[in-house]
Every structure is written in C-alpha cells, then in structure tokens.
Amino acid sequence: SRRQRQMCIRDRIETTFTPPQPIDTVPPSIPQTVWMPNPTKATWLAVVFPGGGQIYNRKYWKLPIIYGGFAGCAYALSWNGKMYKDYAKAYLDIMDNDPNTNSHLDIRGLSNYPENQQKELLRKRKDMFRRYRDLSIFAFIGVYLISVIDAYVDAELSNFDITPDLSMRVEPAIINDQFHSRNKSVGVQCSFRF
To answer: Secondary structure of 138-178 in the HEC alphabet?
Structure first.
C-alpha cells in the first residue's frame, strides 16, 4: 500500500509538473519593411542634380543612359557650335570683298565652285549648323526633362501591384430581371482579379 501511495504521488507530480521548455536561441523574425520612395523628393533631387532622382529611387542602371544622353548632346552642341563659327566667319570674309580676309579658303572643297555658288553654299551651311546647334540645345533640355519625369514616374509607380495573380475568370451566371420577378436568364459572367 505504501508503494501504491508513492506511485500515486509520483503520477500526480508528473502530471502537474511540466519541465521548463528550452529557450529558443533564434530571435523572432523582424518583418522586413519595404522601402517606398517619395515622388516629391525624387522629383526635387532630379531637378537639383541630374540623375539624383534615379539614385534616390535606387535605379542605378539608368544613370549611364542619362549621362550618356547628356554627353551626346554636349558633344553635338560643341561640334555644331564650332562648325557654325567657322562657316559664319568664312561667310563674312567672302562677303566683305576684302582680299586680306580669306578664311573661306580654309573650307575644304569650296574652291571647286564658282564664287557666286561659294557664297550661297557658305550661307546654307552656316544656317544649317546654326539650326543643328539650336536643336542640340533643345535635345540637352529634353534629356534633362526626361530624367526629371522618369524620377517622378518611377517613384510614383513603385507601389504598383505587379503580382502574377492578375487573372480573369469566365463562369456561368443566373441573371435576375429587376422589372419582372419571374424572368430569369442564364448568361456568362466575367470577373477580373487585380
């Protein structure tokens, strides 16, 4: 009987006593916050510093495109500006009929034409290079504006849902007529899931 009491007490202790659970050594996972750029800040950074909005939006791959556009426009502006100055000086020299001003002789291939055609050719080329120089300035401004617009749009669309669960489901449906309670129709229902 003593043995039975000891077993009974041991059973009660075992059922009421739970050994301490080992403490988990891995801390609970901290939820990762998704970084969302501010469109206003991205726009102002792009205005102040070309490419700054793309850096802020973390789209570093766009920087070579933007700076390549700026470099191309700067080269075109420099080249067309130099050619315009050369042809403008040559045109002024040929028009003044002064034998001491002869920069028009430095233009390659110009001596193959008669003098009246030389004047017209120099005038046309001078106007052409001035137009190209002006277009290069507009292209430079255009690349700058595109970089600002791109920074804004990229920041604005950063929280756009691009999950692969965009779907359409087509299923049969029973359509109730509002005006006639007895009339019911069978049709097809399309539902889009965004």
So the answer is: HHHHHHHHHHHHHHHHHHHHHHCCCCCCCEEEEEEEEEECC
Check residue 113 and report its DSSP letter.
S
**12 confidence band (pLDDT: 50, 70, 90):** low
**CB 87 within 8 Å of CB 122:** yes
Other CB atoms within 10 A of residue 144 CB: 17
- The vertex-139 CA angle with 82 and 155, nearest 5°, equals 145
Average pLDDT of the residues of the chain: 81
**Percentage of the chain exceeding pLDDT 90:** 40
Residue 107, pLDDT score: 72
- Output the CA angle 109-111-113, nearest 5 degrees: 95
End-to-end CA distance of the chain: 73
Question: Tell me, what's the pLDDT at 92?
Answer: 81
Whether 104 and 119 have beta carbons less than 8 Å apart is answered as no
- Token pair, residue 184, equals 């019911």
Identify the residue with better confidence: 89 or 108.
89
Cβ atoms of 91 and 126 within 8 Å: the answer is yes
The pair phi, psi for residue 23, each rounded to 5°, is: -75, 135
